[in-house]
Give the backbone structure.
Amino acid sequence: MGGAVSTAPALTVSVTLAAQVEDRNVTFRRGSNPGDYICVTGDVGAAFAGLKVLLEQRRALEEMGEHFEPDIDPYRYVIDRQLRPRARTDMVERLGKAGVKPTAMIDVSDGVASEVNHIARQSGVGATVRIAALPFDAETRFVADQNMDDVDTYGLFGGEDYELLFTVDPSDLQKIDDMEGVSVIGTIEEKDSGVNALSPEHGIIPLHPAGFDHFAGPDDVPEQSGDGAGDV
């Protein structure tokens, strides 16, 4: 059971899409090897930034009632990322054209920290994520600054971005470097190393998974949120 199982205050419609693919084109969560590079498409943390904005707008509406005037113009990108997630099938096609087959892959539904831990656990490896390499849109940074939050937290634990997080063999690194819209954010290590983050301020620190509670109530929005779906 994945992200389709959750608590909601209203009737919802869940759609499941099934498909087939040739064995040689399948990439699982397992498959990473020590020395592989960890990559992510697009930018991260924007969906959580959009959620923060929408919750603040809702609080303002409840407080001000008919006098409330929405203020969303500065936040249209992050709100769109929260309300209209898009599957990155375009990046799958670009990887194929570049001749790159990831060794492992998952989508970013629960945040980078959770997804890296998923790949590490399924592959039987460790990992190091470089915090300074996480890609953020300027609007995401703006929301974090307004809320006096650490934007790195949005990317690591926010989720719902639905970007692709994947690992590649070192022989494919140059092809990845030549691709626009892909960031190399870390490396796969031996299992004994564990899963860690390399922080400019704190050095090597353990990177534990955190994400969305599917069965929390509608008012129990966590500080870090995602939806938990996404077996790729």
About this structure: The beta strands are 37-41, 104-107, 126-130, 164-168, 182-189, 195-199, 203-206. Residues 28-45+85-206 form a domain with the Phosphoribosyl-aminoimidazole Synthetase; Chain A, domain 2 fold (CATH 3.90.650.10).
